[in-house]
Amino acid sequence: MHRFLPLPTAAVGRAEIRILSPLVLLEQRELDFYRSRTLALSRLRGAPVERNGRRLGPLRDLVVAEDGRVVAAIVDKQRIPFDDGLRFALKRRTAA
């Protein structure tokens, strides 16, 4: 069984992820609703990263702060601070 935990409903610490309410774990039908309207950050992995129009390389990972903000991108082995100039070229979703 797979469950989905919306990040804003959790407290992310250095050593644990604390679930603030057990009622936020979603069933499959509820998960399908959110998946059809959102983007999983994992879909960005491998996507080309650009800063101010200059290609930097493929995205390896994202660095997320305890409050849920994306603070940096890992491109190749380099940590790039996240700002308004950073862009990810997403793979297009196909109609299913």
What does the model show?
The structure is a single chain. The protein is mainly β and 96 residues long. The protein folds into 2 domains: 1-38, no CATH class; 43-96. Helices cover 8% and strands 35% of the residues. It has 1 helix and 7 strands, in the order E-E-H-E-E-E-E-E. The chain has one helix spanning 28-35; strands at 10-12, 17-19, 48-51, 54-64, 70-75, 78-81, 86-88. A 5-stranded antiparallel β-sheet has the order 6-5-4-3-7, with no helix packed on it. Strands 1-2 form a two-stranded antiparallel ribbon. A hairpin with a 2-residue loop joins strand 3 and strand 4 (54-64). It is globular and about 45 Å long. The relative contact order is 0.17. The model has no long low-confidence stretch (mean pLDDT 81).
List keywords for this structure.
two-stranded antiparallel ribbon; 35% strand; mainly beta; 2 domains; 5-stranded antiparallel β-sheet; 1 helix; 96 residues
In short:
This protein is mostly beta strands and 96 residues long.
Content of β-strand: 35-45%
Average pLDDT works out at 81
Terminal-residue CA separation: 23 Å
Number of domains: 2
Q: Please tally the β strands and state the result.
A: 7
Give the overall shape, derived from the CA principal axes: globular
Overall helicity: under 10%
- The radius of gyration is 16 Å
Most strands sheet: 5 strands, antiparallel
Count helical runs.
1
